[in-house]
Amino acid sequence: MKADEMWKVSTGKGIKVAVIDTGVNPDTPSLEGQVLANEVPAALAYKATEDYDGHGTSMAELIAGTGDGGGLKGLAPGARIVPFRIGMKDLKNESEKKKAPALPDVIRAIADSDVKIISMSFTEDIDRPEDLAAIKYAQSKGKLMIAGTGNDAQEKNFIGYPAAYPYVVGIAASDENGTVGKFSEHGNYVDLASPGLNVPTWCDNTFKSYCVGQGTSQATAITSASAALVWSAHPDWTANQVLASLIDTAGRDWAKDDPSTYLGYGLIRPRKVLENSDYNPGPPATDPLAKENAAGVEGDTNAAPSASASTSPQAPKDISGGSTSAAASDADSSDSTTMWVALGAAAAALVIGGGAFAVIRSRRSA
After folding, report:
1. Confidence at 187, pLDDT banded by 50, 70, 90
2. CA Rg, the chain, in Å?
């Protein structure tokens, strides 16, 4: 991704990202001044700035963290976060779960605001009509909705919502070689892939140290940040155009019109959009996922990718013609590229402004 080069063009400034999660702690060094808690409607603000396990704060930092105080530097440090806490299934306190706002109410409120991107790093296996109605409303208001497909592929690979709803961009997690994570759920609702393995996140809600995390949650946050970078550079674009540009420039080894059920249209590469100031994103009203939205959701209950798939330079294709690994072909590239997420002095990696966590993705020429 070469974030240091992208930041010369865009940092995500002017873009607000709603993080619907376990709450967001606005007082970590990396998020000071980055969280717009006052923009959360009072009726939906229950403990929005109290994160009960560190997950939502981690996602917010991956998107818009500044890197101050040794914290995470997100991919779009110029963006701002609007936090929401909903009643996640792992929230043990039933009283708090009941007081938390309902997802459709949150989505509708965001739809009526000036937030551009809705980042949802959670999943469940229940299709709720009220959620779908809210999502359709948000789509009508021009919002870009992004969600992880889920992390249970090795157990049951259930169809994960909200990623599987129409107008929601479903995100798979890939490793440093561009191979889908074995845990990353798959099906025809997977639209794009993003780094989601070996990504630093807060260990818990004490916010004292970072641990190595993995999941489609992290991949979702990095995708949301990528969209913020693109939208900031092209503020007159619509959500359709931002998404179309990410799909068009995604790294893949398969035909664009035959998306993989593991990696969708490929690995996000916002740099390929930002480096071309004359990039044409297509018509503003054309839904780039119209085919998927019209076809409806089909699960893929095949076994998760085998161990050989993670080591093969070109993994076998699944039954839908989609690959489980991708080389982000790029004629002007060298053998590898780097996506940086700054970590501060504690990181044992190359340094960008006090330390960095590097995700190296190998690629081969087309």
Report:
1. very high
2. 19
Helical H segments across 81-215, by residue range: 94-99, 103-111, 129-140
Domain ranges of the chain: 3-328
Distance CA 338, CA 224 (A): 18
Cβ contact 224:192 at 8 Å: no
Q: How far apart are CA 217 and CA 295, in angstroms?
A: 25
User: Average pLDDT, whole number, for the chain?
Assistant: 83
8 A C-beta contact, residue 21 and residue 54 = no
Render pLDDT for 71-96 as a digit per residue (tens, 0 to 9): 999 999 999 999 999 998 778 788 88
DSSP 42-92: GGG-TTTT--SSSHHHHHHHHHH-B-GGG-PBPS-TTSEEEEEE---TT--
Q: Which amino acid is at 157?
A: N
pLDDT of residue 299: 56
3-328 homologous superfamily: Peptidase S8/S53 domain (3.40.50.200)
In this structure, what is the dihedral angle of CA atoms 231, 234, 237, 241, given to the nearest 10 degrees? -70
Judge whether residue 256 has pLDDT over 60. Answer: yes
Distance CA 271, CA 5 (A): 8
Tokens of 57: 């704060």
**What is the number of other CB atoms lying within 10 angstroms of the CB of residue 134?**
23
Average pLDDT of the residues in 112-129: 96
Write down the pLDDT at residue 342. Answer: 40
DSSP 37: G
